[in-house]
Write a structure and sequence with these properties.
The structure is a single chain. Helix content is about 50%, strand content about 15%. The chain is built from 6 helices and 5 strands. α1 (about 15-30) packs parallel to α5, α2 (about 45-55) crosses α3 (about 70-80) and α5 packs across α6.
Length: about 160
């Protein structure tokens, strides 16, 4: 895959801490992505242009992280028919619950898939799952990844047994 298939956008550079795990997952699966700061409130025109041009630029899934009022995922979803995955970013005062509610409570007709607060890893994995519908090599890699998870749990049980 020569071109970026996933766009990762965030409202502020401080959100990178929570979006970087999504980037790392995508990189692990060999999926190219583009990463940008796109603020729904400070640069609404940039957000509009990003969302409107994403499909024609080859983007197939958008991961959008935002904290506080967290409008970036929902506003992006309102301007594209691509799947948008929202990552609620933990906030200073409400620990990300405000972000979670802002992203998950979208009105009917404007869906945003939403992962747990600060859970960029699951956002990346969800993007991989979406892309695996079209790309068979990703399906195989996901199956290997799942087997690796099973092995981790098996090893935990062995460790636990040795503790008893």
């Amino acid at each position: 895959m020569d071109r970026p298939l996933v766009g990762i956008i965030m409202g502020s550079i401080s959100d990178w801490e929570y979006l970087k795990p999504a980037y790392e997952v995508l990189k692990e699966f060999g999926i190219r992505c583009e990463v940008k700061v796109v603020s729904a409130h400070r640069t609404p025109q940039v957000m509009y242009e990003y969302a409107k041009s994403a499909r024609e630029r080859g983007i197939e899934v958008i991961i959008a992280g935002a904290g506080g009022s967290a409008h970036l995922p929902g506003m992006t979803a309102s301007m594209t028919t691509l799947p948008v995955i929202g990552v609620p970013v933990p906030s200073k005062h409400l620990n990300g619950v405000d972000s979670l509610y802002s992203i998950v409570q979208m009105p009917p007709g404007v869906p945003v898939a939403t992962v747990g607060i600060g859970n960029g890893t699951n956002a990346g994995l969800l993007a991989v799952r979406i892309l695996s519908i079209k790309y068979a090599d990703l399906q195989r890699k996901l199956e290997e990844y799942t087997k690796g998870l099973e092995e981790k749990v098996d090893n935990m049980n062995k460790e636990l047994k040795s503790m008893l």
